[in-house]
Amino acid sequence: MKKIQFLFLLVPFYALWLSCKTAPSVAGDSFGAGVSRPESSVEFAEVIKQLDTNDSVNVVMKARVSEVCQAKGCWMNLVDPIASSDESLFVKFKDYAFFVPKDIAGREVLVEGVAFTEETSIEELRHYAEDAGKSEEEIAKITEPVTEKKFMASGVLLLK
Q1: 12 pLDDT tier (thresholds 50, 70, 90)
Q2: Quick check: is 120 in a domain?
Q3: Contact in structure between 115 and 148 (CB atoms under 8 Å)
Q4: Which structural domain, as residue segments, surrounds residue 115?
Q5: Is 6 domain-assigned?
Q6: 32 is a domain residue
Q7: Does the pLDDT value for residue 148 go beyond 80?
Q8: Distance CA 104, CA 54 (A)
Q9: Which end of the chain is more exposed for a tag (fewer CB within 10 A), N or C?
Q10: pLDDT tens, 73-103?
Q11: Contacts 24+ apart (CB under 8 A), 44-50
Q12: How buried is 103 (Cβ within 10 angstroms: 0-12 exposed, 13-18 middle, 19+ buried)?
């Protein structure tokens, strides 16, 4: 009987330990369709690695926002929240159906959608540079299209 009582005392501590080890804290503001399966999120570096061998990856990913469109919040750039690297993902929102707040740079998010690689035209790159508030000189220096990793998000969840 004492063993059973001891087990009942351990179960809450074990559950607490598991919750700290698995899913990130998901309390926060949600945009678009939200994130349907936050417990299955993968790290940013894993998605980048998968894009090296796959055309696209359907995923829930944890990342840090490095930049947001200052005109409307209609796009954002994501980077690895753990390691510093030059890799980033340019994120647009499915069907242009939602935007994110313009002041979330530095915040961690979960995004659900499709990661892929695509060439971005000079005109589009200049448009995004203008949205980001870049100077005319910086915009004029954009003279070549760029192949970059992108993400089409159906939902975004700001983490606390």
Answers
A1: very low
A2: yes
A3: no
A4: 27-158
A5: no
A6: yes
A7: yes
A8: 30
A9: N
A10: 999 999 999 988 889 999 999 999 999 999 9
A11: 44/78, 44/79, 44/80, 44/81, 44/82, 44/87, 44/89, 45/80, 45/82, 45/83, 45/85, 45/87, 47/89, 47/115, 48/80, 48/87, 48/89, 48/149, 50/115
A12: exposed
3-state SS class at 80: coil
Q: State the total domains in the chain.
A: 1
Report whether 119 contacts 145 (CB < 8 A). yes
Which CATH number does the domain housing residue 114 bear? 2.40.50
- Structure-token pair, residue 7: 């087990």
Beta strand residue intervals within 22-145, DSSP E? 30-32, 42-43, 56-68, 75-79, 89-93, 108-120
Q: Give the three-state DSSP class for 27.
A: coil
| 22 in any annotated domain | no
- 117, 152 in Cβ contact below 8 A? no
HSE-up of residue 117 (Cα within 13 Å, Cβ side): 13
